[in-house]
């Protein structure tokens, strides 16, 4: 069936989003056309435009921000001796939701992935090395995801810091609270065993 041109273009636009297949894109497009009032549609469109126009990357840590440097980098209450390295901005937000970590961040905006043609120079590693020349940083916590690419990136950074006085650590991995053993994959179980701690 031939859709009106405006619906076809909207379906095509929604289809470009990750995790949105043709059927979902079609359903969203018809929802916008038939269920949303004009003010909501204009607000949605304005939100999309503002995200592209107003957000930038922090020149210090690489996190998304609407001010430079970002709120975290300019927060005087942060522990400037600890730096956590993450893959992308979503990881910063996840860690901040805990309200426990008070150190700084460095966002790589990717991981090393030779199979996809992504090397160390294609992500934010050079800026990380420059930051680590700052004498205040005493510990680097690597918090890349437990994937092949995340592990490779972690090892690459560890190799770069091997001959420095900076303490290197890796976030623990294992079973999530409330999860059953039968639902865990082999790698998760292995990491949980390796990261076991003594009961006192």
UniProtKB/TrEMBL annotation:
Q: Which GO terms describe its biological process?
A: DNA recombination; DNA repair
Toprim domain location is 81-176
| ZnF C4-type span | 58-73
One GO term in the molecular function aspect is: zinc ion binding
Q: Which domain of life is it from?
A: Bacteria
**SMART domains with a match to the protein in the record:** TOPRIM (SM00493)
Q: Which UniProt keywords apply?
A: DNA damage, DNA recombination, DNA repair, Metal-binding, Zinc, Zinc-finger
The UniProt family comment states: Belongs to the RecR family.
Q: What does this protein do?
A: May play a role in DNA repair. It seems to be involved in an RecBC-independent recombinational process of DNA repair. It may act with RecF and RecO.
Q: What is this protein called?
A: Recombination protein RecR
The species this protein belongs to is Haloplasma contractile SSD-17B
Gene assigned in the entry? recR
């Amino acid at each position: 069936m031939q859709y009106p041109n405006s619906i076809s273009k909207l379906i095509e636009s929604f289809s470009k989003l990750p995790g949105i297949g043709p059927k979902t894109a079609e359903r969203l497009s018809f929802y916008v056309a038939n269920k949303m009032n004009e003010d909501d549609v204009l607000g949605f469109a304005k939100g999309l435009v503002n995200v592209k126009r107003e957000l930038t990357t922090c020149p210090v840590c690489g996190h998304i921000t609407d001010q430079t440097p970002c709120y975290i980098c300019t927060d005087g209450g942060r522990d400037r001796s600890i730096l956590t390295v993450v893959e992308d901005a979503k990881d910063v937000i996840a860690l901040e939701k805990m309200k426990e970590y008070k150190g700084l961040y460095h966002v790589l905006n990717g991981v090393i992935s030779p199979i996809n043609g992504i090397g160390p120079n294609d992500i934010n590693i050079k800026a990380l090395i420059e930051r680590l020349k700052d004498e205040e940083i005493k510990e680097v916590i690597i918090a890349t995801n437990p994937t092949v690419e995340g592990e490779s990136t972690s090892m690459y950074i560890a190799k770069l810091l091997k001959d420095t006085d900076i303490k290197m650590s890796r976030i623990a991995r294992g079973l999530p609270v409330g999860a059953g053993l039968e639902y865990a994959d082999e790698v998760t179980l292995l990491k949980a065993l390796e990261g076991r701690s003594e009961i006192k």
